[in-house]
Write a structure and sequence with these properties.
This protein is α+β, with helices and mostly antiparallel strands and 69 residues long. Helices cover 26% and strands 23% of the residues.
Length: 69
């Protein structure tokens, strides 16, 4: 499964790819909701609530290593 994901915004436009960690953050912050459509290939979209447990809370090394310096 891909570490990078797409989501559909309110206008139906595909946004991404973004690391799964971004999607987890955006859901916590209320930027997207459980009904937001997401995809790991940019083609087949499904509701976040159906796949959230399979989306790795992953960020690229250059983003996740900021706290370690």
């Amino acid at each position: 499964m891909s570490n990078y994901w797409f989501y559909k915004d309110e206008d139906g436009d595909s946004i991404g790819p973004s690391p799964g960690g971004h999607l987890h953050h955006w859901i916590k912050e209320g930027h997207i909701n459980e009904e937001t459509l997401v995809s790991n290939d940019g083609q087949k979209f499904t509701a976040w609530k159906l796949v959230k447990t399979t989306v790795p809370d992953w960020l690229p090394d250059e983003e996740s290593s900021d706290d370690e310096s």
